[in-house]
Specification:
Number of strands: 9
Helix content: 40-55%
Mean pLDDT: 88
CATH architecture of the largest domain: 3-Layer(aba) Sandwich
Strand order of the largest sheet: 3-2-1-4-5-6
Structural class: alpha/beta
Number of helices: 13
Radius of gyration: 22 Å
Distance between the termini: 53 Å
Strand content: 5-15%
CATH topology of the largest domain: Rossmann fold
Order of helices and strands: HEHEHEHEHEHHEEEHEHHHHH
Length: about 325
Amino acid sequence: MLLEDSGRSGDKEARNRYDRSVECSKGSLSLDVGGVLKRPGTVAIVGVGLIGGSIGLAIRARGAADRVVGIDLDPVRLDQASRLGAIDFAAPDLATGVAEADIAVVCAPVTATVPLVLDATRFGPESILIIDVGSTKARIVEAVEADVQARNRFVGCHPIAGSERRGVEHSRADLFDGRTCALTPTDRTPVERIERARSFWTTLGATVVEVDPIVHDHQLALTSHLPHAVASALASTVSPELFSMAAGAYRDGTRVADADASLWSGIFLDNRRSLLEALSAFEAELKAFREALEAGNQEQLASWWSRGRVCRALYVDPGEQPSKPPGPN
C-alpha cells in the first residue's frame, strides 16, 4: 500500500511546522458573483510520483489552486517534489494532508486506491472532492460506492497520459495537454462532484469524456493493457545477444516494457476479464497472419498488413500532425 497508518499523529514537530506553513499561506478564496468557488484552495496529492508530480506542476503553472499539498510515505520523494516545484507543502501523513483539502487526488497503484479513497473520506472535510488516476475503474468504483460517504465524494478518473518512466523527477507540467481524461461516474455520483472533477481536469489541459466504468475497462484493455503485455512479450522474445542487429522497430515496439512490473501486474489482474477478451482478439489476428505465412500467400499477407496500416494512420497523438491516409499499394 502506498500510504499506511494514515490516521497516526506522526512526528509532532513536523505536523506543527506543516500547520504553521499552511496557515501562513492562506489568502482569500476567489469567488464569483454567486459565491461559488472558482478554484480550489487546497489540492492534496496522495502519491507524488510521475502522475502526481505532473498534476502538481500543472496546477502551479496554471494557477489552478492556492496551494498543493504532497502526501507520500517516501520523504525523499516529497523532498524531490518540493524542490521541483510540484508541491507547496509536504504533509506528515494523509490525515493532516487532506484535513482542509478541497480536492484530494489519489495517485496510487490500482491495488492501493480504494483504501486511500476511504481514508481521504474519513479525514477530509464533507465538501471534499476525491478523484483517482487509476488505469482500471470497474472494481475501484464498485468498492468505493459500497461506502455511502465515499460514494458522495468520489469521482473515478483516468487521465490517459503517462510514460514508462517512473518517479517525480520525470514530471511535466504539460503532461495532460490535449490528452483525454475519462470520468467514470455512475447514476449515484453527485452531479456537483462530477462538474468539479470535469473543471479540474479541463483546467489542467485535458479533454474530458464520461464513460461507464465497465466500458472504460473494456476499452483500456485494448488500447493500453494489451499493448503493454505485447511489448513485454516482444522484449522477452529477442535475446540481448541480438541487440546489435535491432533498431527502431524493436525500440518502439518495446518502449513501454520498461514500465514498473508491480504496477502493471496489478493492472493486468484488476482488468483480467477484459484483458483476456483483448488477448483473444489479438491472437485471432496473429492466427490470420500465421495462416497466410504458412500458405505462402503474399496477397493475403499484404491484405493483413494493409488493414493494420489503415487503422494506424487514423490514430493521431495529441501534439502530432495527422498522418496522411495511405493510398493504394
